[in-house]
Design brief:
This protein has 493 residues and is of the alpha+beta class. The protein folds into three domains: 184 residues, Rhodopsin 7-helix transmembrane proteins (Rhopdopsin 7-helix transmembrane proteins, Up-down Bundle); 75 residues, Helix Hairpins (Orthogonal Bundle), CATH 1.10.287; 147 residues, Heat Shock Protein 90, CATH 3.30.565. Helices cover 65% and strands 9% of the residues. It has 15 helices and seven strands. It has a five-stranded mixed β-sheet, covered by helices on one side. Strand 6 and strand 7 form a beta hairpin. Helix 3 runs parallel beside helix 5.
């Protein structure tokens, strides 16, 4: 299993379009582990000296590749220096050269090679621990602590080889998730992704035993063996599809969507519908606004000519409703049009202060007390100032409307530190009526509104703006206690 996992992980990283140095160094390490364990597995079966040679060469490749991966993983801020990679490589080459001499048959040769590899692996483990200790508390430190726990588990099971192999196989997949999904910052996020893979692997295992139970006559294979095979198929299917797709598209370029699942097809259809909406919205708005302009103009002319106060009020109603429809059309256009933000590094606190100053200056806040808790030392955020201003203003106005009897609107900014890049967090909290759980699920859905004369596009527009900035927005609410919006924006790298 460890051999197959090593090969699968290395192939998955090699065929990845990014091919970052960290990915390639881990792919090479996984391949060395696969060679070592493959030789160890086949050598007792075939009693062939060639497989022992493969096992030892794979083991000799592990020390320099582990040092290289450790340096890449710790961004070269580790106790291990670049020269240590060269030193380990020279030692491994020296041992490998000995394997071609009569000394290769010396009974203690394998023991010396294992001691050398174990010493290097222990050195890398200790350097990782030291590196984590020096780091400031934060998200990335948490991720590194998870890796230390996984390495410690491998060390603890070293003397029990079958269990050790399973732990190392799990650790390789764990590291794969860490380096390919840096946005998964919490342990439960990483473990949930791994749990999905395990559940998917467990399903065919259960089906296999059900089929064997109904139709089988002989003894069934062990559960561990069947589950391992299912797990390997699950993690190998992705890389296999990528390789096969690249091969087939070279032969038949027109079958680009051959591996697209029905669910992906639904997403593609949604994207096509969004593009169609972008094209139709301006035409539809034009066709609606023209007659609305005529209606409004006619109503204003008639109002100047009629003398009856009742008739004037009716014409005022027509004008007000035409203005409201114009606002609906404007919001619809704003939602439908593609967003191309003009991203420039700007201070987020200044944008927030400007938006809330506008609210206070116009007397919109009423009996609501606005409280600012802005972090004084925030990095600049690449953003379109007008669009982010619109988001803050929209959410603030919604919050004020949710507090008809008065309350407190608290806007807070915080700095989120991470090795992958710092981010700025914005929270907008009110002490208003809150939102029911049924409505909360649809709050960002276009045209969904709980207000009597609302359009239901304001928050949908806010979500599109934040997403176009590469950020995230979410909301929590307790009916009767208030609502809080969380916004995360990446800062200048």
């Amino acid at each position: 299993m460890l051999t197959a996992v090593g090969i699968t992980v290395s192939v998955a990283l090699i065929i990845n379009k990014k091919r970052e140095p960290l990915h390639l160094s881990f792919a090479a390490l996984c391949l060395a582990i696969a060679f070592h364990k493959g030789g160890a597995f086949f050598n007792p079966i075939f009693h062939d000296g060639g497989w022992l040679f493969v096992e030892q060469l794979g083991l000799l490749a592990i020390p320099p590749l582990t040092i290289k991966f450790s340096r890449d993983f710790c961004e070269e801020q580790t106790l291990i220096r670049k020269r240590d990679v060269r030193s380990a490589l020279l030692i491994s080459i020296g041992f490998a050269a000995v394997l071609f001499t009569p000394f290769a048959g010396w009974k203690h040769m394998g023991t010396f090679i294992y001691l050398y590899a174990d010493a290097v692996l222990l050195l890398c483990y200790l350097s990782l621990v030291a590196y984590v200790k020096k780091r400031a508390a934060g998200v990335e430190k948490k991720r590194l602590l998870y890796l230390i726990i996984a390495c410690t588990a491998a060390i603890a099971t070293y003397s029990i080889q079958p269990l050790f192999n399973l732990v190392v196989a799990g650790m390789l997949y764990f590291i794969l998730i860490m380096i390919t999904h840096p946005h998964l910052t919490e342990l439960h996020d990483i473990m949930t992704r791994a749990l999905v893979i395990l559940i998917v692997a467990l399903f065919p295992t259960v089906v296999f035993y059900l089929v064997i139970g109904f139709f089988g006559k002989g003894p069934a294979p062990t559960f561990t063996l069947v589950f391992m095979v299912s797990f390997l198929i699950v993690i190998a299917i992705g890389p296999f599809q990528v390789v096969l797709k690249r091969l087939l598209t070279k032969i038949y370029p027109e079958i680009k969507d051959v591996f697209t699942s029905p669910y992906d097809m639904d997403e593609k259809l949604e994207r096509e519908k969004a593009m169609l909406l972008e094209k139709m919205a301006p035409v539809l708005a034009h066709e609606i606004r023209n007659p609305l302009g005529s209606i409004k103009g006619a109503a204003q002319v008639l109002r100047s000519e009629v003398e009856s106060e009742g008739h004037r009020k009716l014409l005022d109603v027509i004008t007000e409703e035409v203005n409201r429809l114009n606002r609906v059309v404007s919001q619809f256009l704003e939602y439908a049009r593609p967003y191309a933000p003009d991203l420039r590094p700007r201070p987020i606190n200044a944008v927030i202060e400007k938006a809330l100053a506008l609210v206070e200056a116009n007397g919109i806040s009423g009996h609501v007390h606005i409280q600012l808790e802005l972090h004084p030392h925030l990095p600049a955020v690449p953003m379109d100032q007008e669009q982010i201003h619109q988001v803050i203003l929209n959410i603030a106005l919604n919050a004020i409307e949710a507090m008809p009897e008065g309350g407190t609107l608290t806007v807070r900014t915080v700095r989120i530190e991470s090795d992958a890049g710092d981010a700025v967090g914005i929270s907008i909290r009110d002490t208003g009526l809150g939102i029911r759980s049924e409505a909360l699920k649809q709050i960002f859905t276009p045209f969904f509104t709980t207000r009597e004369r609302g359009v239901g596009l304001g928050l949908a527009v806010c979500q599109r703006i934040i997403r176009s900035h590469g950020g995230r927005i979410r909301v929590k609410s307790i009916p009767g206690q208030g609502t809080i919006f969380y916004i995360r924006l990446e800062t200048v790298q």
